[in-house]
Specification:
With 367 residues, this protein is of the alpha+beta class. Helices cover 26% and strands 32% of the residues. It has ten helices and 20 strands. It binds adenosine-5'-triphosphate (ATP).
């Protein structure tokens, strides 16, 4: 495999002095679907715009297809970009919207026709080629915007929140279409979103950013199972991960919750990695999916039990979400139990094999 896009120590400092991106490093392989995710203002659009050439790189190197392109104009970069407000030309038909960028590049008309027709087929737009944008649905317009990028046959597709103007149902459909499109084109995608569901479903690898810094680069599964720090742990996954403050006892056998004194027996693996934290404060983290209330799990996990004081529950058909607290700390549990839950106090347990501990000061996962 060869890297299509390489960012080496890329920084962005805007003219007003604001440092928006710090030391961004990644090697993106051909055919990857990279999702840049993170809260508003974290620097994901700035990063994408630097790859596109719409923002200058303050320091570091950007390499596309083996060539350093820091100072290459956007149109010569072998990229095509799809924006959130896909800005189709209202007076042009779907066909001409897709053909336009090739026409101004003076590509041979026979070639243009072939490329537009191929893109239209891939995107299911053949029946709409003679329509104007206003005669299309939101999803169809979005597809035309993608079509304009496809006809360019770029090395890299750059997409900046392309689905955020669509309603929830259409977003779901378009997500699926984008996934299939990526497979069919076998091209490299770099995609910006603040939506962690899009990140988990679309990405081959996710880059989570915060305040201009990359927090973690990993596959969706790795990021979900093994978040690097508390920020990623809280950002990826719905409902968000549960956190509990406490300390490791002097013998390194138990986590003891602040306030309640509740004790949770560490696994052998946890005992091995927790050596530097004996008698020290740590944050326990566990996903809502790994808190159980059924008899079988309670019997198996006798030394990691507690009582949830229930605030309310949400019955969602296939599962229940239990919102409550343990001591002063809020806890959300997702239980695959098809009964509606009405109890105000529920006995529960953690599967300690699925529990992570984080350093309180560095916020990094202890491993
Ligand atoms: P959003 O999801 O809101 O678009 P983002 O993660 O894409 O957020 P960016 O647009 O990359 O964020 O912006 C990163 C930071 O850089 C923000 O704090 C933003 O205010 C700042 N910023 C963006 N453009 C400029 C500019 N031209 N001059 C100075 N600061 C800027």
């Amino acid at each position: 495999m060869s890297a299509d896009v390489i960012l080496k120590d890329v920084n962005k400092v805007y003219p007003n002095g604001f440092h928006a991106v710090y030391d961004f490093n990644i090697e993106i392989q051909k055919g990857e679907f990279i999702v840049l995710a993170g809260p508003s203002g974290c620097g994901k659009s700035t990063t994408l715009r630097m790859i596109a050439g719409l923002e200058e790189i303050s320091s570091g190197d950007l390499i596309i297809n083996g060539k350093k392109v820091n100072n290459v104009a956007p149109k010569d970069r072998d990229i095509a970009m799809v924006f959130q407000n896909y800005a189709l030309y209202a007076h042009m038909t779907v066909y001409h919207n897709m053909a336009f960028s090739l026409t101004i590049r003076k590509v041979d008309p026979v070639e243009i026709h072939a490329r537009v027709m191929k893109a239209a087929e891939v995107l299911g737009l053949v029946p709409y080629l003679n329509r104007k944008p206003k005669q299309l649905s939101g999803g169809q317009r979005q597809r035309v915007a993608v079509g304009r990028a496809i006809v360019r046959d770029p090395v890299v597709f750059l997409l900046d929140e392309p689905l955020s103007n669509l309603d929830a149902k259409l977003r779901g459909t378009m997500r699926k279409e984008l996934m299939q499109l990526h497979e069919r084109l076998n091209a490299t995608f770099v995609y910006v979103t603040h939506d962690q569901i899009e990140a988990l479903t679309l990405a081959t690898r996710i880059v989570v950013m915060k305040d201009g810094y990359v927090q973690q680069i990993a596959t969706p599964k790795e990021m979900f199972d093994n978040p690097e720090n508390l920020f990623v742990a809280g950002f990826i996954g719905t409902p968000p991960m549960n956190f509990m403050q406490g300390m490791i006892d002097e013998a390194g056998e138990y986590f003891v919750q602040d306030g309640t004194g509740l004790k949770f027996k560490l696994t052998h693996h946890q005992e091995e990695i927790i050596g530097n934290y004996l008698g020290k404060k740590v944050t326990l983290a566990v996903r809502a999916e790994y808190i159980y209330i059924d008899d079988a799990h309670l019997a198996e996990n006798k030394e990691s039990q507690f009582t949830i004081n229930v605030d309310y529950t949400e019955y969602l058909g296939a599962y229940n979400l239990i919102y409550g607290n343990v001591g002063d700390e809020a806890i959300i549990s997702k239980v695959y139990n098809r009964q509606e839950i009405t109890d105000k106090e529920i006995k529960a347990c953690f599967d300690m094999n699925q529990v992570h501990f984080f350093d309180v000061e560095t916020t990094k996962r202890i491993r």
